[in-house]
Amino acid sequence: MFGTDPFWLIALKAVFCFAFLMVTVLVSIVFERKIVGWMQLRIGPNRHGPWGLLQSLADGVKLMLKEDITVKGSDKLVYLLAPVIGAVPAFMAIAVIPFGPADNEISIFGHRTAMQLTDMPVAVLYILATSSIAAYGVVLAGWSSGSTYPLLGGVRATAQIVSYELAMGLSFAAVFLYSGSMSTSTIVGEQADGWFAYLLPVSFLIYLISMVGEAHRAPFDMPESEGDLVAGFQTEYSSIKFAMFMLTEYIHVVTVSALAVTLFLGGWRAPAPISTWWEGANHGWWPMLWFAAKLAVLIFFFIWIRGTLPRVRYDQFMKLGWKVLIPVALVWLMLVATVRAMRNEGWDYSEVVYWVAGTALALLLITFVVDFFRGGEEEEEPPAAEKPFDPMAGGFPVPPLPGQTLPPVPRRPSRADRDREPVGAQAGGPATANDGTTESKGADGA
Predict the structure, then answer these.
(1) What global pTM score does this model have?
(2) Beta-bridge partners for 108
(3) Could you read off the pLDDT of 26-35 as tens digits, one per residue?
(4) What is the C-alpha separation between 260 and 291, in angstroms, rounded?
């Protein structure tokens, strides 16, 4: 289905993919500010254009016209190249996303073509590769800036992307087993009888969490957390270079959302109630409408959790990836592979359910018994002796480790605890009236 279009048609579809990303990003930024403002009882942008729809365009023009500053202590070549490395791969992933059927459904200037730029047998791995290359832009930006905070942001980004790409890849593996292909158009075709979102719910949930961490979005925006890194890897960037990093973040949001629609939500297929009573729902230009609607729902999910959830701690974030998502994804992948193998051998569906459910219950029972006996054998360890702590170790203030406490801070006595003399006291003692009571002069000097 691909590789037969004339060059001008391929170029036209490439321009459409680029324009689709840019327009979606501009609209997403405006709607994010409007929706978060509505959640926080604010107005949001309402000055530029109708309903503030041109606010993103105005912000982009403003950033391009601002003064472009290059840090003197930076590595100039890498410093200027990092935003490009981050932005260009983000555009490349949209090339294999299908907007419609792959059997030449539409006609453009008399040429029948597919609603997809290209496809390949390993299209999903191509998307993972491009997203991994984009991570180098963040890391190199933090290193080349020659500053401490950007470097910490780049290191955080490296650990974050490595951790959550593992869980994301394992969630994809279940889809590959169920569909039998890594081609995006084939995966959408295999969802004709049911979306993988409810056939593989655990994989879908793991991917939803992983895509938020992959896109560096709240509550997982650790590489650029303002509270402790002062905007992180992009602290030393300004003007158009800073705008490219912002553009890269929102393009990643659109890309991972489009990938979720393709792998788990039926892609360009209409929802079941519509496709059952309308035969033409999945033909012509209608599939692009269904794809855009599903994409808007997932982008709203990004905005929703940003306005709802607070940022988690970095150690909690890494524990979630390594101790929860990856083990659950591995067990789920083994379960899916077992079910597929049993189905290929001709086992009845009810027998597969009985065997899988029985095995899962037996494993849970075994782990419960092991934990019960192990908990009885463990004895309480005596509390460890408090370690000496120097808050200025190495010349820099450092926080205390577990088991350490900060030394008392010398403070002067509180003013409330000091002894105060009466207001009308004289040098020789308080004045005494004729009746023996103590006089005090008021504010009027009486």
Answers:
(1) 0.79
(2) 111
(3) 899 999 999 9
(4) 11
